[in-house]
Amino acid sequence: MRSTGASSTRRVGSPAARADIDELYQSTADLPEKKSPAAQNLTWSRRQGIPQTSGARRIIPVNAPRHVVIIGAGITGAFAAHHLLKAGVRVTVLEAREKGAGSSSRSAACLRQQFSTPATVQAMVYSVAAYRRFAEEFRCSDGQGDVLVQNGYLFLYDRPDASDSPEHHSQRWKQAQSTVAMQQAHGLRDVELLSPEAIEDRFPHIRSDDLVGATFCPSDGFLRADMVYQEGFRRVVEMGGVLRQNEAVTGGVFDSNGRLQAVETSAGDRIEADIFINATNAWAPRVSESLGGSTLPISPIKRYLYFIERGPSITGDQLLSWPMTITSSRAYCRPENAEQLLAGWAHAAEAEPGFDWDDQDHIEPGFFHRSGLDNYGYQLWLQLAEALSIVGEFAGLAATTSGFYAVTPDHNPLIGFDPLQPTLLQVAGFSGHGAMMGPFSGAAAAAMALAGETLDQLDIEGTSIDLRHLIVGRQFNAGEGLVI
Ligand SMILES: Cc1cc2nc3c(=O)[nH]c(=O)nc-3n(C[C@H](O)[C@H](O)[C@H](O)COP(=O)(O)OP(=O)(O)OC[C@H]3O[C@@H](n4cnc5c(N)ncnc54)[C@H](O)[C@@H]3O)c2cc1C
What we know:
Blueprint: H1 15-26, E1 42-45, E2 52-54, E3 67-71, H2 75-86, E4 90-94, E5 110-111, H3 118-132, H4 134-137, E6 148-149, E7 153-158, H5 166-185, E8 192-194, H6 196-202, E9 211-217, E10 221-223, H7 225-238, E11 242-244, E12 249-254, E13 260-265, E14 270-272, E15 275-278, H8 284-290, E16 299-309, H9 316-320, E17 324-326, E18 332-335, E19 340-344, H10 376-387, E20 396-407, E21 414-418, E22 421-428, H11 434-451, E23 457-460, E24 463-466
Parallel strand pairs: 3-4, 3-15, 4-11, 7-17, 15-22
Antiparallel strand pairs: 1-2, 5-10, 6-10, 7-9, 8-9, 12-13, 13-14, 16-19, 16-20, 17-18, 18-19, 21-22, 23-24
Helix pairs in contact: 2-7, 2-11, 3-11
Bound molecules: flavin-adenine dinucleotide.
Flavin-adenine dinucleotide is lined by residues 71-77, 94-97, 101-104, 106-110, 248-249, 279-283, 287, 303, 305, 403-405, 430, 432-436.
């Protein structure tokens, strides 16, 4: 694997490099703003210009990996595989169960570009554009690739004088206003601030009398997550990628220097590759340790979703037009289909690092919608009804589902080579936003795999996206402020 010594990148793997990374991460707040290069037809590139691809011409660096094993067949694995196959790399995906069996099939799959840091806003502007052209990129047959529903995404803010903690709410609204200005300056042109009158005008189902305002981005919305991984892996296999399901990675095979050379699987096989991508999200810490990687700071945390039946109070078409909406208490909902509203609300929960497969679907009695009127689903329903009063007239809770968030201390994922294991690339810890980030994280992972090193910048479709806040082994000094 090549080490270029280029100033734009930091090779990980040694204590010196680790100190360098720490210093680098700490200093990100002081960086001068980068200018986007002129629009170019790049799929991705390195700042110092070695590996580049374009639709017309593909250049594979001399020491580029010939074979990459991706562990985990969720949304992240699908995009990473697709990017690598496009670059001409041989790809094998190993999945312990079936594609989508992890969080990807249990996700609310909401999608927003409204984040609190410029790099994540830029990453999500790219992801939304990529999801918009998903059907074409993944060569889906008619109707099979419409994965993106752009109903918009609305954050509601309470009037400080109508709340118990006026100072807190006043601060939050001020912060929201400056965040919108930052988002607009970093490419999210259609995000806007709404007055209570504008909210009522556009969204008559929302009570605006206790609101100071809202932020709204019409190109946000939600995804059809099942379509993303089903169609994603259909295309991956069509392109020559190998998908081995019901075959878990159980350990690694190392050379005399302790370098990972191959993985062992539950089928008793041993698969060699140049690079191994750990795309197992909530399972990533245990997979990392089994492959000689570092102890990843990722906490699996249980999250529940509820399906609320519409009933006759509004029509199916009205429900289908609603944007994804987050109340001031961070309870959220969006239309699932013409009959149901999908809703969620993060509760205080302990991490479950030793969770088992079946724990994904284990619903504690206090969270089960049929376990009595004091269950969490009813609290959530009431909470939503305060902001969207028509929801109080809905017919009832129909179902509860659950899964694990893979939470990092700063709510940003870990994307980069492992400090202890130079052939292991970590792409995990999505902290509740991994479905929406799929195109970006797949692109970043593929670019690093091709470069053979951790990159601190991704040049993509005319924008340079800073990657330093994603480095594995970073310190967690700053974090994502808009977390659901
Ligand atoms: C309730 C809930 C709501 C969410 N809401 C949103 C949202 O609104 N928006 C959003 O963007 N994100 C949301 N998320 C998060 C999002 O779903 C995840 O971040 C995303 O799906 C992660 O995809 P992934 O491919 O990285 O991981 P996963 O989909 O979890 O895939 C990892 C795969 O690795 C496999 N695996 C594990 N161990 C091994 C092994 N040893 N060998 C081989 N394979 C293995 C698993 O079977 C699994 O299929 C939500 C998650 C939950 C649970």
